[in-house]
């Protein structure tokens, strides 16, 4: 089997495992939906990592997607329409902001994104009249194709949406990364000026990835709003951006499965840690990050894929 | 013959260093023009100005009848001016084949997010190109695993993949082992002549200059000190003393 086939198979197996887990343990549905949503956002972070750029501000797009849902839900309660609206809104925002930040690299790129996300955070906090400040906004019941659903069907629907989006974005990212455009991203990391000397605008290459990453984060935000039914400015806080980068490193940036493996591991460990050793969560995070950086640079996906490759050679 | 590239009165100083101090040069269509001169004479600076990397402080550059002075590298490449680099500029995490394919993609249009970079047509073109440069055996190797001479060749191959009308090469043979040098240059010249490319190349090896250049321009402190056919220029006592005298022993040795 070829590498893409194996990855697709693993993705489908993972999806099936998630469905089974959600069926066996209903409250896991919520955790897994969140994990899938974050995985989608981290997938966007990974595209930027390919170009050697780390955004410490992508929670901005997650929050924008989430607040789009919260704002529009009272007048437009259809989940699919809300998702489309969040996707459009964050794509436009990603394009406008991307036109500006794609001129910068490395620490400047990272910090500009951070700065913009913090501006957005304080706007959400300060404009109480519209956003209800730190109290946040409750998302009313949504409908699917015009039909109001009971709680269980609604949860399954959002879970299914998250799963389909994750698979869709995952397949797209896989194809995109193998394309000239995706390969040019890693060329930005290693020798950006050469691209310009070959007639390619490296800035536009990065911009394309940036817009995609904003779109993915926006969809993630919409899913998070639909699942948690409550949005607060904390969604845009810088620790939320840091969490996405953390998951990207934990899962590994080498393949499109990495973000989802990372997100699933992160959310599951968090839930169990909260239940057992609540006050040690930060310490566990720090220790895991340390271990990954010291011993497993490729993250979870790196460990898994090297094992797979060894298996195939043997 | 008409001039494909016309430089007029190019000036550029870095602090007190005059890297270009009134450069006038016509590069004729289909000629091979060698640039020689001591270290720091401003040879690379000339290529940098011509390809848009540096903006001259004075003077004009005209390519194929249109002024390109101070335009962006991207715009200039798209008009048909490619370059290779004194220090190879490869995408180090990509294989040699992918490097070549990325150059082909740049020429053909990179804005396709669905078809793979190594699509059959581009892969075949990349392999044919690498074959002409004798690089097929290392096609699957990562660029950062290559030795200096091979990197240099791959760097030139990428510029050639752009199918330029004018190719500027900065010391194409430095770092190439002396034993292989003539063979490689012969191959390169054949490739370029077949494609009817006009070439400007900075060269420290006078044997290469003598054999392959139609004309030689001698750079000295940001000026052109002599210009003409190799036989005539290289026989000039002043050139022998100032350029060849210094450079001959260094020829064939990796040049910083
Ligand atoms: N970007 C730059 N900034 C400052 N000084 C520069 C820059 N580029 C070139 N110089 C200076 O301009 C002069 C000409 O440099 P250039 O690289 O053009 O010489 P060269 O003829 O190519 O030399 P070599 O044979 O060593 O490659 C040198 O003194 C160099 O230090
Ligand atoms: Mg030089």
TrEMBL record, chain A:
Q: Where in the cell is it found?
A: Cell membrane
Tell me how this protein sits in the membrane. Answer: Multi-pass membrane protein
Sites binding ATP sit at 189
- What InterPro entries does its record include? ABC_transp_permease, LivM-like, Protein_kinase_ATP_BS
Annotated Pfam families: BPD_transp_2
Cellular component terms (Gene Ontology): plasma membrane
**Coiled coil location:** none
Keyword ATP-binding in the entry? The reply is: yes
Q: Which PANTHER family match?
A: ABC TRANSPORTER ATP-BINDING PROTEIN, HIGH-AFFINITY BRANCHED-CHAIN AMINO ACID TRANSPORT SYSTEM PERMEASE
Q: Supply the name of the protein.
A: Branched-chain amino acid ABC transporter permease
Query: Source species, please?
Result: Falsiroseomonas algicola
UniProtKB/TrEMBL annotation, chain B:
**In its keyword annotation, does this UniProt entry include Nucleotide-binding?**
yes
CDD domains recorded = ABC_Mj1267_LivG_branched (cd03219)
Q: Where is the signal peptide?
A: none
Q: Which domain of life is it from?
A: Bacteria
Instruction: List the keywords (alphabetical).
Output: ATP-binding, Nucleotide-binding, Transport
The UniProt record lists the ABC transporter domain at 5-246
Q: Name one GO cellular component term.
A: plasma membrane
Pfam families xref list: ABC_tran (PF00005)
Q: Name one GO molecular function term.
A: ATP hydrolysis activity
Q: What is this protein's name?
A: ABC transporter ATP-binding protein
Which source organism does the UniProt entry give? Falsiroseomonas algicola
């Amino acid at each position: 089997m070829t590498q893409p086939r194996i990855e697709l198979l693993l993705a489908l197996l993972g999806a099936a495992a998630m469905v089974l887990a959600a069926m066996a343990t209903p409250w896991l549905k919520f955790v897994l939906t969140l994990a899938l949503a974050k995985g989608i956002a981290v997938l966007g972070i990974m595209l930027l990592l390919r170009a050697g750029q780390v955004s410490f501000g992508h929670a901005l797009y997650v929050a924008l997607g989430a607040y789009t849902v919260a704002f529009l839900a009272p007048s437009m309660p259809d989940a699919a329409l809300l998702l489309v609206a969040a996707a459009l809104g964050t794509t436009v925002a990603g394009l406008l902001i991307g036109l500006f930040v794609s001129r910068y690299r490395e620490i400047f790129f990272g910090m500009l994104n951070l700065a913009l996300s913090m501006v957005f955070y304080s706007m959400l906090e300060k404009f109480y009249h519209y956003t209800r400040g730190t109290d946040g906004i409750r998302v009313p019941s949504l409908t699917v194709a015009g039909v109001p659903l009971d709680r269980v069907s609604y949860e399954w629907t959002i879970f299914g949406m998250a799963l389909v989006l994750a698979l869709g974005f995952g397949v797209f990212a896989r194809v995109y990364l193998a394309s000239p455009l995706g390969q040019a991203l890693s060329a930005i990391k290693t020798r950006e000026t050469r691209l310009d000397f070959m007639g390619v605008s490296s800035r536009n290459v990065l911009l394309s990835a940036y817009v995609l990453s904003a779109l993915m984060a926006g969809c993630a935000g919409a899913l998070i709003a639909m699942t948690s039914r409550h949005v607060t400015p904390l969604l845009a806080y810088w620790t939320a951006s840091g969490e996405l980068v953390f998951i990207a490193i934990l899962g590994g940036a080498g393949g499109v499965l990495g973000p989802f493996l990372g997100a699933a591991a992160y959310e599951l460990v968090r839930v169990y840690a909260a239940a057992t050793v609540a006050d040690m969560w930060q310490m566990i995070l720090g220790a895991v990050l340390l271990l990954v950086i010291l011993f497993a640079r490729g993250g979870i996906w790196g460990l898994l894929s090297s094992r797979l490759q060894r298996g195939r050679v043997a | 013959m008409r001039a494909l590239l016309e430089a007029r009165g190019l000036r550029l100083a870095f602090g007190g260093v005059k890297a270009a101090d009134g450069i006038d040069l016509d590069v004729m269509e289909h000629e091979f023009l060698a640039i020689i001169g001591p270290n720091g004479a401003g040879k690379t600076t000339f290529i940098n100005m011509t390809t848009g990397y540096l903006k001259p402080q004075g003077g004009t550059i005209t390519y194929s009848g249109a002024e390109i002075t101070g335009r962006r590298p991207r715009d200039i490449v798209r008009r048909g001016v490619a370059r290779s680099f004194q220090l190879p500029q490869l995408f180090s995490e990509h294989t040699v084949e992918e490097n070549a394919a990325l150059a082909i993609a740049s020429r053909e249009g990179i804005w396709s997010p669905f078809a793979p970079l190594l699509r059959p047509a581009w892969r075949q073109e990349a392999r044919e190109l690498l074959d002409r440069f004798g690089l097929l055996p290392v096609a699957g190797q990562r660029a950062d695993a290559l030795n200096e001479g091979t990197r240099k060749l791959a760097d030139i191959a990428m510029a050639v993949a752009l199918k330029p009308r004018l190719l500027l090469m900065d010391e194409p043979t430095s770092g190439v082992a002396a034993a292989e040098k003539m063979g490689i240059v012969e191959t390169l010249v054949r490739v370029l002549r077949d494609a009817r490319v006009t070439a400007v190349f900075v060269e420290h090896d006078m044997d290469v200059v003598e054999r392959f250049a139609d004309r030689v321009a001698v750079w000295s402190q940001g000026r052109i000190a002599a210009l003409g056919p190799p036989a005539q220029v290289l026989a000039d006592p002043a050139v022998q003393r100032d350029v060849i005298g210094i450079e001959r022993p260094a020829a064939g040795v990796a040049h910083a």
